[in-house]
């Protein structure tokens, strides 16, 4: 165990040397003299063109559909939580030994 412990501490304190960049008189690293390579032709299919407006419109329609679905899902969750709370209240009433735990509709008596 002691040999393993000394071995892990040596690995924890390993120093990795970095070479310093040669900074110019301005204190900044010099820029490369040659321009970067032109983009690969294989990426041209991902460039936006005339289809850009169509994809934007399609994305907005999909976003609106996702928003509507999320709202419907949230409303269904609220309705379900209210139904569960009402059922729990009725079940607690029945389990306590009471009778007539169902809610009474006052408007039904007037008809």
Brief synopsis:
With 111 residues, this protein is mainly alpha-helical.
What are the SSEs and their pairings?
Blueprint lengths: L1 H11 L39 H44 L10 H5 L1
Per DSSP E runs of 2 or more residues, the count of β-strands stands at: 0
The coarse silhouette is elongated
Runs with pLDDT <50, length 5+?
Answer: none
Task: Specify Rg, calculated over alpha carbons.
Answer: 36 Å
Average per-residue pLDDT, rounded, comes to 78
Q: State the major sheet.
A: none
Could you give the order of the helices and strands? HHH
| Head-to-tail CA distance between termini | 88 Å
Strand content: under 5%
Helix percent band: 40-55%
Structural class: mainly alpha
Please count the helical segments: 3
Task: Describe what this molecule looks like in 3D.
There is one protein chain. With 111 residues, the chain is an all-alpha fold. It has a domain at 58-98. Helices cover 54% and strands 0% of the residues. It contains three helices and no strands. The protein has helices at residues 2-12, 52-95, 106-110.
